[in-house]
Specification:
The protein is an alpha+beta fold. It is built from seven helices and six strands; from the N terminus they run ααββββββααααα.
Length: about 180
């Protein structure tokens, strides 16, 4: 009987320790909040409420998610769980179609996860549904993204463009197809 109680106590201790480690990992490895990331970006970073971001008269929105504007951010835009980040200086240098694509691609990560090609197709589908993307716009996106050699998280741009062309053709059967 004593051995059985000791076994139960050891198992309870192991379970308790596992729960404590899981709790600790959840909070020490959690992605930053917009406020935490804003503090990292320093002076000039600011949070824009959902649906309030505008560039050159165009409004950008990703559901109920805010956008963090951060000029010190190293890319055009990115997504963290629950919010998007835009470097307004770099973003402003993009053409309107590329701005819409970049923001919508990052928004796509909120719904399809980390996969780049799924986020690309999300942007293509949404661009067509919202009326800002046509065959010429897809060509502009492909010309821009095809220059990218890729990295650890992003496949090479030429391959991503090929996937976007498939998404474009599936989204609107019979619609004008982009030139290859």
């Amino acid at each position: 009987m004593r051995e059985r109680l000791l076994t139960i106590a050891v198992m309870a201790g192991i379970c308790g320790a596992g729960i404590a480690v899981a709790w600790w990992l959840r909070y020490t490895n959690a992605p930053p909040t917009p406020e935490e990331y804003m503090a990292r970006m320093g002076e000039g970073a600011k949070i824009i409420g959902p649906g309030e971001l505008a560039f050159e008269g165009r409004t950008f929105s990703c559901g109920r998610r805010p956008t963090l504007l951060a000029s010190k951010f190293s890319d055009y835009a990115a997504a963290f769980p629950g919010f998007l980040i835009v470097n307004p200086d770099r973003f402003a240098r993009l053409t309107p179609i590329l701005q819409l694509y970049a923001y919508t691609h990052e928004c796509g990560h909120q719904f399809v996860g980390r996969d780049e090609e799924s986020a690309d197709c999300y942007a293509i589908d949404r661009g067509m549904a919202d009326g800002w993307l046509d065959a010429n716009g897809l060509e502009e996106i492909c010309a821009f993204i095809s220059r990218s050699p890729g990295d650890l998280r992003h496949p090479p741009g030429v391959g991503r463009c090929a996937v976007m062309r498939v998404c474009f053709s599936r989204a609107r059967p019979g619609r004008e197809q982009p030139a290859k």
